[in-house]
Design a protein that fits this description.
The complex is a heterodimer of chains A (207) and B (207). In chain A, helix 1 packs antiparallel against helix 3 and helix 3 crosses helix 4. Chain A has two domains: 36 residues, no CATH class; 160 residues, no CATH class. The longest helix of chain A is centred in the middle third of the chain and has 30 residues. Helices cover 52% and strands 14% of the residues of chain A. In chain A, strand 3 and strand 4 form a beta hairpin. Chain A is an alpha+beta fold and 207 residues long. Chain B is α+β, with helices and mostly antiparallel strands and 207 residues long. Chain B has two domains: 36 residues; 164 residues, Butyryl-CoA Dehydrogenase, subunit A, domain 3, CATH 1.20.140. Chain B is built from seven helices and six strands, in the order E-E-H-E-E-H-H-H-H-E-E-H-H. Chain B is elongated and about 70 Å long. Classes of the chains: A alpha+beta (207), B alpha+beta (207). The interface between A and B is large, with 70 and 73 residues. Chain B: Keywords: Cell inner membrane, Cell membrane, Membrane, Transmembrane, Transmembrane helix. Chain B: One of its GO terms (cellular component) is plasma membrane. Chain B: It is found in: Cell inner membrane. Chain B: It comes from Tateyamaria omphalii. Chain B: Its main location: membrane.
């Protein structure tokens, strides 16, 4: 039930931010374009972008899952000590009136980043292998893009750093392995963001 | 002058940048709903904006967290907590907290209101600069969540029996809601409306 665009509309591209209309010729690997008016990135065709995205997404997913149950900060004071995992932090508001906040924190720092990684792998793997997209790939990619602002792993890492300093005069603080794993995830996600070109992905999904 | 998709009787997809003849309700490539301009944009912006302000007030009046140490219990609001940190000499961290939880949220309320008013009534700033403000608001909004994550981390970590414990306050919830509402407010603003202003100004002023 897909209505095909008239062929001449195929060669047009509209800036999603300001509606400026451009005609695109043949786009080669390595080409990139920005909107002349608002400088929004229209497309960036990098060599092997798909492969880079899949490998970094896979690595991030493994790191996030492994980091979930390892301590990211440990504190000691007056002989008492405690270590918190990311799951503990997400469940900090569990029980009591702030229960809803717990769910939100789980979604923002664990569920959504992980979902986005899985959806990205699902959408891009067949494209990189030059196969037909897997069923539901378009819906998966649209959802993943819509969730982008709500995936806050990098903000959580900065929050960790702030907490560390806040705690130094209350107790002795040690950084756990999960903290460094999350830092790595943030770097990998930044690389993905830089390399990912929505326009190219949609073009490939539409083939 | 820039030619927009609307000028050519086309409607652009904001997800995949493809264009369709006016009247298409759904993008044939990615399945996104098509609207040349979101006519309800401003209504949604103001609705979320008001919700955000309403949630921001208790976020500043009630304690964000309660700290219990051996002989001392203190309840800290956002601002009191930051001032306390500054009094202990951690000026950098106090600045981060103040910027993330006070300067950015307040700045965002003003910025969104300015942009929404400018779309309807025009403004002194040229659309180019308005759009930069929009981009900054969109980018920076999520970072206000830092404080919520810090509270989550502190509360899960500092559970040292009688030596020290930290429990979350109701302000953590309303602050998180305020951040979420303002993010939704900024996302509801259709940036193409900002650029439409110059089109009308240009045609009025044939210089």
């Amino acid at each position: 039930m897909k209505d095909a665009a008239p062929p001449e509309l195929d060669t047009l591209i509209a800036c999603p931010k300001c509606d400026a209309l451009y005609r695109v010729g043949v786009v080669n690997k390595g080409d990139r374009a920005r909107c002349e008016r608002c400088h929004t990135r229209l497309f960036t065709r990098r060599r092997d972008a798909g492969l880079v995205i899949i490998t970094t997404a896979f690595a991030s997913a493994v790191l996030v899952i492994a980091a979930l149950f390892l301590p990211f900060i440990e504190i000691r004071r007056l002989g008492f000590s405690n270590a918190a995992t990311i799951v503990d932090a997400a469940l900090a508001f569990y029980g009591g009136p702030l229960f809803g906040l717990s769910l939100a924190v789980i979604a923002l720092i664990i569920a959504l980043p992980l979902t986005r990684l899985v959806l990205t792998i699902y959408t891009l793997t067949p494209l990189v292998l030059d196969r037909k997209p897997w069923p539901g790939a378009k819906r998966a990619f649209r959802f993943s893009e819509a969730m982008r602002p709500w995936s806050m792993a990098e903000i959580f890492v900065v929050g960790c750093a702030v907490s560390l300093i806040k705690l130094t005069d209350l107790a002795r603080v040690e950084i756990g392995p999960a903290f460094w794993m999350f830092v790595a995830v943030v770097v990998l996600m930044a690389v993905q963001n830089m390399v990912m070109c929505r326009w190219s992905v949609w073009k490939a999904l539409d083939r | 002058m820039t030619v927009t998709a609307r000028d050519k009787g086309l409607v652009a997809c904001r997800e995949c940048a493809r264009v369709w003849p006016v009247g298409h309700a759904q993008c044939g490539v990615c399945g996104n709903a098509l609207r040349s301009r979101d006519t309800q944009s401003l209504q949604k912006v103001w609705a979320w904006w008001i919700a955000g302000i309403i949630a921001y007030i208790p976020a500043n009046l009630y304690p964000m967290l309660t700290t219990r140490t051996l002989f001392h219990t203190s309840e800290d609001t956002i601002i009191a907590g930051a001032l306390d940190l500054a009094a202990h000499g951690s000026f950098g961290i106090a600045a981060i907290i103040l910027i993330a939880s006070v300067v950015i949220p307040l700045g965002k309320f003003f910025a969104i209101a300015y942009l929404a008013l400018a779309v309807r009534q025009g403004a002194r700033w040229p659309p180019g600069r308005q759009y930069v403000l929009y981009e900054v608001v969109e980018y920076i909004g999520r970072w206000s969540m830092i404080d919520v994550f810090v509270v989550a981390i502190l509360c899960s970590l500092v559970q040292l029996n009688v030596a020290a414990s930290i429990t979350p306050g109701i302000a953590a919830l309303t602050f998180a809601l305020s951040v979420i509402f303002t993010m939704l407010s900024a996302q509801s603003l259709d940036p193409r409306l900002i650029w439409d202003r110059i089109e009308t100004q240009d045609t009025k002023d044939p210089a």
